[in-house]
Amino acid sequence: MNQEPEIVLETHAEPHTHRDDMGSKMGMWLFLFTELLLFGGMFLLYASYRYMYSAAFTAAALHLDPVVGTVNTIILLTSSLTVVIAIIALQKNQIRFSKLMLGFTFLCGIAFLVNKFFEWSTKFQHGIYPKGPALADMSNGESVFFGLYFVMTGLHGLHVIVGLIFFSFIYYFIYKEKITATNFQKFENAGLYWHLVDIIWIFLFPLFYLIH
Amino acid sequence: MSNGVIVQNPTAESFYDYKGTHSGILSWLLSTDHKRIGLMYLAAMITFFFTAMTIGFFMRLEMLAPGGAIMSAQTYNSLFTLHGVIMIFLFIIPGLPAVFGNFFLPIMLGAKDVSFPRLNLLSWYLYMIGAVLAIVSMYTAGGFIDTGWTFYVPYSLRTSSNVSLAVFAVFIIGFSSILTGLNFITTIHRMRAPGMGWFKMPLFAWGLYATAWIQVLATPIIGITLLLIILERFFGIGIFDPALGGDPLLYQHMFWIYSHPAVYIMILPAMGLVSEIIPTFSKKNIFGYGPIAMSSLAIAFVGYLVWGHHMFSSGISDTSRVIFSLLTFLVAIPSGVKIFNWVATMYKGSIDVRPPMLFVLFFIVVFSIGGLTGLVLGALNTDIHLTDTYFVVAHFHYVMFGGMGTLFFAGLHYWFPKMFGKMYNEKIAKIAGWIFIIGFNGLYFPMFLMGYLGMPRRYYDYLPQFKPYHIIATIGSWIMISGILLMFGNLISAFKRGSKAPMNPWGGTTLEWTISSPPPLENFDKIPVITKGPYDRS
User: What is the ipTM of this complex?
Assistant: First the structure.
């Protein structure tokens, strides 16, 4: 963040186009703030309801399988590492290795979603879904717990999907040589977004799976 | 910043004449030029403003006599919701940043455009999609929402009207607002002309900067809250629904965590505009540049922490009520700093009361009334008596319409020559201004008295003893609307037949007055180098 790359004005191109990597990164960070606050609202609700229904939350958390959660945490953390490796590889102009690592990151994201899919469908089979039979028998606190669980992990899953869409574009841009060893800001921004997805999961995981 | 150099010849081709890759309407709809986007916002916003004003007109007409005069209670409920949603989410919140911010921020910073021009165009589209969805939701089954613009649960979860679509519309508009804020922050950090340090920026840019931070940091909270309402209506998740264990008070907290700072989104750029107009028409350097700039940030910061004062009578704890009340009073300090610095700027200046300055003077008076009555509502004991009465309605319109609305008109009159390259009839503009402000006070001042006597807000009917006040208010609304119509009629006729505006009709010192009117495509032939403060006349 220290050295400020010069703003390159491309006077020959269309009017108003210029390249400013530093500005682009700053815009991405601001966007990440907004994402944090979006989830922040949910964490605020979680904190309030945990205080209000602490016993019910503890009981409800027993329905979640920490093993699945742990596996997903490992998958996401690994993918965060590989995306960084992919960016560094690109900067060193090792394009093939970079693509490989990016592909691996993509697969990790898919694996996470597949796990999530099975986790959710098991819950549905047991009647644990909003207005579902099992949830109707539970206390208010437990039903709020699962309400939060579905909304927060669902919203997070949506972000995983968006991250994967970003990566598909990045892969295409690398292939088309629009992203290169000297022009990689888009890739770095997508990576930053992925780390955000990762860090939100790092908070979701203990809040839902580990606190009993 | 005259800086002794004119950076451009006055006959340069204006951005209107630029022949891009597209022609006709597409040259606007696909343009990433910040000036065209600003004008597209302006066109949309004036349309929405007039729509909501017309709704307000009918609401006042209903209140002319007790008993259902021209509409049913249900219609009235929908109308005040519609009036609030359109005015707040489509006009007041995005008004100054989206129109004048887009058009003038890059020029005032000495830049060719904002940092992310394409994102800027996307913001406009999101804004329009949100607006269209809000309008479509009126015609879907169930009719337009009747919840009031606050969408309070549990009613918003129960009503048969189409809350989901309207709320989704607001969610999308919020996204547009976030992207604009993000764009402006980056622009201000990255695009200032060489030599323009932070404290050589025009104060309008400081106002936009503070606002942009609130847009970025507060809007996501309402985003998630509104999303939860939609999920709750479709799936019955039960996060806010008390029947399923949810807590409706938490909804109110989350709603106001955004919606109170949103008040400052509305007012901070407007205050920045005042800091532009006063030095120009007082022919003086601004007094207290640093304090004005910093007070914008202080208002933004403290304003983020006062949302609880909307909930004094909702049953939150006494401790939190006292803290929120104290913080609310603290906002008055940076606001006072601004007012005193403006007055000190005018002191011993050579004041020239031309239309923009006239509107600013109106603003200072009505906004002070609004601000002082805000203290009455910020105090716990008086608020219990006045909450949910017309007193609140009056206070709100004095600060929002008297504040942001009046200054929107001021900005329109200040920058009209620059935006359209035409001069308007100043005499008619001033007459329109006077009619507007007389009608404004006639409309809203009786509401303070009614509210004090106990007239509740959002009722379509009232007891006979309130009749005289309602009649005055309704007549006031007619006068105010005629003033507004005259004002826009004058501007439209100037747009068609006005004389050509010179480069610097008011003797302003900031960068937009150093380029031709209307500005050329890339604003500056050569990026200017800044050596002096923005209002330095030496």
Answer: 0.89
